[in-house]
Amino acid sequence: MTEQTFDREAALNILRRNDRGGYTVPTHGLYPFQWSWDSAITALGWLQIDEQRAWQEAETMFRGQWDNGMLPHILFHGDSTTYFPGPDVWGATDGIPSSAISQPPVWATTLRMLYERCSDRALAEDSLRALLPKLVAYHDWWYTERDPDRTGLVCSYHPWESGMDNSPAWDAPLARVPEIDWSYQRRDLGHVDSEQRPKKAEYDRYLYLVDFYKRHGFDSDAIYRECPYRILDTGIISILHRASEDLQHLCSATGESDAAARLGDCMSRTAGAVSRLWSAERRCFLNYDVLAGEPLDEVTTGTVLPLLAGLADDDQAAAMAALMGDWLDASSFGLASTHPSSPRYEPQRYWRGPVWLHINWLLALGLERYSAADLAQRLRSSALDCVRTSGFWEYFDAETGAGCGGDSFSWTAAIALHWLGAEP
Ligand code: DGY
Fold first, then answer.
1. Closest CA to 163 of 300, 325, 53
2. CB 3.0–4.6 Å: which of 31, 153, 213, 274 could bond 100 by disulfide?
């Protein structure tokens, strides 16, 4: 059990306050809707106090699944004037209005945890039975629509899809995306200091891409052929692979052998292809810019996530563990989202350096998989130091531990609760 370094009741109150009845907003104001990977992670927090409510998080999210299996990264359950870009900009209004991209597919991993830890077995069995076909359709969507050439490596079309929106890894490919030619008013800067958020040049291109999907009628083939941004993202590839492993386990346990076999084939293709992303020089895997035909030379927390999925061989895992040991030494709190030796490291700007609890959680799971339990424990406690220092913020300055972004943040509270209640 992780040593309690925070106020459990305060964490629970954040979940209760951010609960909108069936789904949890990441935080009030800044993110007033349901975000996919936030919601998947927040379910782990709910599991500590209300098992039914934990499963409900998934049920509500999967109600917004598209007919082709895609699970959008945002479901706009209502109106809000505090967030931009809203459903009118995305233009995806069939069913529950949504965005038109996905997010790191961590759902099967957290739902396996819910299934295995839920004390109400009837609830767990019924909930899983209803969700399993939807999860399978979601994974099928990734492997077909995002890898139509069956290379084994799915692609991503937007920095927001990575969940690591403003990472310096995306700077070069994003700079090649045209800027939009219409004006707009950002809402995020009304909630958070501009020093902690992306700049206008990035937003202009984020919005170009949003417009691009709409102009192409959300047609997967056309977008695959023509999208001006196409990345092999080590974070998405790893989270998908780990989640497929968890989903395959759930399918086998419930007699869904065809789906289990299909997932097995997809996972074998990924395991066979991922070595092309390895960089011995950088001691990690690197993201890859498909359109430029070159690796993106930036060491970020996404580039060591293959540990989570067991995609590294033993030598690669040892190299990444050594890298992460040095990396922890290089800043004062947690594992910084960009390696502090990078010239583009900014310890408090969104994804360019700050510490995220859920990423440290995923990486600790990965290290444990390779028997690096001591380093995993170091990662967890140094991430929890952020919470002890500042409370439950969206992210934390890697040098001072000061809270950044949104306050009273659901996934930060959820991971802290999960560590306290469930993991060694
Ligand atoms: C935002 O608006 O910053 C979100 O992260 C996009 O998902």
1. 300
2. 213
- Answer yes or no: pTM beyond 0.85: yes
Using DSSP, state whether 186 is helix, strand or coil: coil
CA-based Rg of the chain, rounded to a whole angstrom?
A: 20
CA 188–ligand 1 middle distance (angstroms): 9
Per-residue pLDDT reduced to its tens digit, 396-408:
999 999 999 999 9
**Distance, CA of 138 to CA of 237 (rounded, Å):** 14
Secondary-structure breakdown of the chain: helix, strand, coil percentages, each rounded to the nearest 5:
55, 5, 40
pLDDT at 272: 98
CA 341 to chain centre: 24
Distances (CA, A) of 231 to 35, 333, 372: 21, 29, 30
Q: Is 293 helix (H, G, I), strand (E, B) or coil?
A: coil
Q: State yes or no: is 165 an active-site residue.
A: yes
Closest ligand 1 atom, residue 74 Cα:
7
- CA gap 32, 81 in Å, rounded: 9
Find, among 313, 263, 324, 261, the residue nearest to 105 by Cα.
263
Ligand 1 within 6 A of CB of 76: no
C-beta separation of 224 from 216 below 8 A: no
The finding on whether 187 has its CB within 6 A of some atom of ligand 1 is no
Q: What are phi and psi of 231, to 5 degrees?
A: -125, 140
* Locus of tokens 């992460």: 324
DSSP letter assigned to residue 178: P
Residues 377/225, Cβ–Cβ less than 8 Å: no
Tokens of 43: 């379910």
